[in-house]
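We treat protein structure as text, and this decision shapes the records that our systems exchange. This encoding replaces a full spatial description with a residue-level series of whole-number codes. Below, we set out a record of this kind in full and without editing:
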Amino acid sequence: MGNVSSAVPYRTLKRRVSEETWRGEPEVEEQLLLELQELQEVELWRLNWSLSQELLQDVPPVPLSWLRTADACSTAKTLLRCYHDDGALSVLEAALRAIGRDDWLSMRHMVYPLRPRPRVPQTLDPDFVMTRRRRLISRMQRLDAILDVLQDHNILNAANRAAVHIYAVRKDKNRALVDLVLRKGGEAQEVFYQALSQSEPFLLLDLEDGPIMDKHPSEPCVLTEMLECLVSDELRTFQWLVSDHMTGESLTPVGREKLQHADRLTTARLLREHFGPIQAENVAMNILLKMVPCLSVCLRGQGVTSQMSSDIRVETNMDTSVIKNTPEVSEDSNMFRLRCRQPGVFLCSETGLLLEGVGDVVYQTVPWDLDFLSTKGLRPAGPLFRFKLLTGSFHRVHLPHCLLDCAQHSLSVAHVTGDSVDFITPGQVTDSHVIIDISGFSCFGLVFRISPPDSSRDAIGGLVLLFHRFSDSSLFVHLLPRNVCLTQVIKTCKQRIRAEYVETIPDCELIPNQTYKLSGLPSVFIQPESSKFVNFSDYNNFLPSFQVQLEALEADMSLKLQLSHLTPLRLIGWLIGSIESLVWHQVLTLRAAASSPCTEVPVSESVNVILLLHGILKNLELEDFKTFQRLLNLRSDPIPICQLEAADRMRTVDLMVQQYHAEGAKQVTEEILRKMNFNHLVDQQLIN
């Protein structure tokens, strides 16, 4: 390998930084304190959060763990420690601008140019990437800078980079990169370490507190060490799978209720108590290596790849009739498990997937990176599915699509492995599915070649989905492609707008980028009056197109969705207006909130929950309460920070009940308190 450090001007930090090495000049520290002490407590927290983000180009962020409980004095010292006299003021100014407090900056005349200080390179721990996998995936922010260095040193190529950028969520991108580096071996891990020291040196220093995993897998703590490699969503998947483990092995599964809120240490303890130390390790290893195959390089010393074509048995006498199968769904509705106990063609009732073969497979949808696809002249034509094969083998997958006959030739299948992204021309396209042969499972998703604007008026198979919010008698109408995952749409709407799914016949044909009108009888208030169908490639967000305000005592109503055909000539359009054609029509029977005989019960329950949660939050110290609020804002369905900033304990409880309802607020409170290690508080006051 070439001289890596010569290409990395921002070298690694010293293992320990003494106070003398980062203490600034008195006037600089006083200037920092002057600015920071002017901030209110919430503003200081927002500033600390900004410091953990990428504020200035080529300036590494501060690890958030260094700032979580920082007051003005310790924040000033941290700035000096990280950026020294010549950079601390510049970074502070950028952070103040980021939180909108640049109107009273008093140190503009004192801004210094940033000048990185030479670093002393360290010897790389050969297990650095493996032992810090979880924290690297969760905390890396400057991904492109690391990819640039890896590509400059010929560790990665353009195909590898595409396999990282195909995902929309930063954690998924980080996971793809870290696992790729682990598979590439020692040289790749060394260059990755040097790249990290250039792009995020303070994160590197924070990660160097000591290894997470022991190098001797025979020791009793190996099970915990394996679980420490998993990020939070992987841990939940592991707990879900191990709670219903391998019935063919005559092993009684661990109860799901025991593992539901268990941390890594508790999970390891429960498995050892249930299976015994040796069997617990075997059970965990069997599942882990199928969930995260790259860990086999670290844990067993040899690689385990996905099934090769030689391992696949194509059943020549297999029954080709479709068997509808209802998958098991994880509690967060983000993971599906399909058990196919004999060779056949199995239809997943939740996602529309068809699988040919036999075995046990777990899969989930992950968000596409739309910017990456657009650079290839593509857009999503279906969800991106990530598969994990537990047992058995499958030789063909049918991906559901929403296109009609005239446009099916534009479909391709994105096949995402750990090393590359390939766009495959499908072997067969039916009216509902795209069929491809597979030799192993990874990620598969449908994409569509973007057409010129004047040729994109072909109709697609669509859905009109309705969601009813009882609290204010609102009906939300979603226009979506027919191959969305309905389970995830329902989950998203319940979390975001607290609305329940209304069963109806949703199928229709919709034209992308065309305008539709919704009408109702008896007359109801509908906003907006018209809406353009722009969610034709939306498999992540599921935003509503219309909101209908129902009459308080109205039970039955008729809804019509019509396509507006605008005439090309203005004069004719002014004379005769637009021409509307019926697309979808349903008669609904809804029970409004005011007519519900159970209205008083939820109100009483809400009062009890509010009093209960307020009593729990009163037991938290001020700093713990602020941490609780921060975790509320970091959820996938967060309460906006602008609402939490000035909220006391009672107001915070009110916001939680409004956002998640009474029972949901209790569940969220329990989840956050357990993350904060307040298990005793949950067990004493929330569970009992």
Observations:
- The chain has a mean pLDDT of 78.
- Residues 484 and 539 are 6 Å apart (CA to CA).
- The first strand starts at residue 322 and ends at 325.
- The two ends are 60 Å apart (CA to CA).
